[in-house]
Amino acid sequence: MDQSPFPYHGPLLPEQVLGRELLARDIALRIRDRRLTALLGPRRYGKTSLLKRVAADLAEVGPQCVWIDLYQMTSMADLAAAVDRGLAGLAGPARRALDRIAASLSVSVGVLGIELAHSPRNGVDPVLALRNRLDVLVRAAERQDLFVVFDEFSGIAEVDGGPAVLRTGLQHHFQSLGIVFAGSEPSTMRTLFGDQSQPFFAQADLIDVGPLGDEALLFIIEQGFELSGRDAGTSASRIVAVARGHPQRAMQLADAVWRRVQPGAAAEEIDWEQALSEVRKSVDAASERMFDLLPSGQRKTLRAVAASGSIYGRAAASLDLPAATARNASESLIGRGFLRRGARLEVVDPLLDDWLRRRFPL
Questions:
Q1: Are the C-beta atoms of 306 and 299 separated by less than 8 Å?
Q2: Backbone φ/ψ region at 135: left (φ over 0), alpha (ψ -120 to 50), beta
Q3: Rounded Cα distance, 32 and 149, in Å
Q4: What angle do CA 240, 242, 244 make, to 5 degrees?
Q5: Are 351 and 280 in contact (CB under 8 A)?
Q6: What is the pLDDT of residue 115?
Q7: How buried is 136 (Cβ within 10 angstroms: 0-12 exposed, 13-18 middle, 19+ buried)?
Q8: How confident is residue 176, by pLDDT bands cut at 50, 70 and 90?
Q9: Which terminus of the chain is less hemmed in, N or C, by CB atoms within 10 Å?
Q10: C-alpha separations of 158 from 51, 190, 286 in Å
Q11: pLDDT per residue as tens digits for the range 82-100
């Protein structure tokens, strides 16, 4: 069987990112104009894939990307090592220029993780190591056209003093170094950039990465089938209806249907039904494990929203969900990316929403 046109495990290749063209262009312009930007959106909404595409597009005309992944940071050592890995990821002339700058400062790029692992013996100070690497970065940006992506930036909130050291090392160089922050916990990101007590207060424009439009999703699905010699039939519109703009879930459903359709054939009703059943089986256990880890008030709130789109009314009453508990729980769930506000409250992950309604019918 040829390769599925609907990859959904992990970030996409730049050329696979579709439906975000206007947003990609806007981010690229912001980077070129040195306008600090923070992207907010739930997990699996394609922020990393989108920024990989922007980085690839810009690399064709000059600017090179330093990609720094801050996922699951817990210490200053983690943060320093992440910045070091990002610098080490540069290639070509930009990397050679960076290495010359690092050598002039007696900094060895790419080995900090090993050095920190042996810090009890050699006394590596992670704060000093981080400052030294930020110095290398900003000096390199004075000679090369560079920009930085801090992916999963919300992870820095767990590093005591991390935001302050990062801000101090970068604040005088915002005009020479394009910076994009991306984070999957909207409440944490809004706090980092919107709380006056935070070092990055009011330092970046906040942009919400929302669901893909139905028209864009329909085009992506139909095109994927067509280019692989198949016909999506009515399954394309069914996928769009179930996915509700969730990029990763739409691709997961489309992949499951596609694998049932032979080249030259069209998807039939049975293909859609079997694909949906298969995807449900693959995600139900994970949905239940995640649900079990939530506090009682948040579990009830998710159930009420899945059933009715509201934290009040009959569904909430049947769950003995007090209004104050529902309000607090919904704000927490919105902040963590489980819920979003629209015409009504909605569970972000359509397959979690589907599981809740099947598992707890009201």
A1: no
A2: alpha
A3: 13
A4: 65
A5: yes
A6: 74
A7: buried
A8: confident
A9: N
A10: 23, 15, 25
A11: 999 999 999 998 999 999 9
Record the pTM: 0.90
CA distance 147 to 31: 7
Q: Nearest Cα to 105, choosing from 81, 132, 124, 144?
A: 132
**CA 158 to CA 136: how far, in whole Å?**
24
**Helix, strand, or coil here: 319?**
coil
CA distance 151 to 51: 9
What is the per-residue DSSP string for 149-183? EEETGGGGGGSTTHHHHHHHHHGGGTTTSEEEEEE
Sequence-distant (≥ 6) Cβ neighbours of residue 34 within 8 angstroms:
174, 175, 176, 177, 178
Which residues, other chains included, contact 159 with Cβ-Cβ below 8 Å and sequence gap of 6+?
73, 74, 75, 76, 78, 79
Question: Burial letters for 43-82: b for 16+ Cβ neighbours within 10 Å, e otherwise?
Answer: bbbbbbbbbbbbbebbbeeebbbbbbbbeebeebbbbbbb
Is residue 119 pLDDT above 70, yes or no?
A: no
Quote helix, strand, coil % in the chain, to nearest 5: 60, 10, 35
Two structure tokens written together for 191: 């706090």
Return left, alpha or beta for 346; rule: phi > 0 is left, psi -120 to 50 is alpha, else beta: beta
Q: How far apart are the C-alpha atoms of 316 and 318, rounded to whole Å?
A: 5
The closest of 360, 353, 357, 352 to 285, measured between CA atoms, is 352
- Separation CA 334–CA 298 (nearest Å): 11
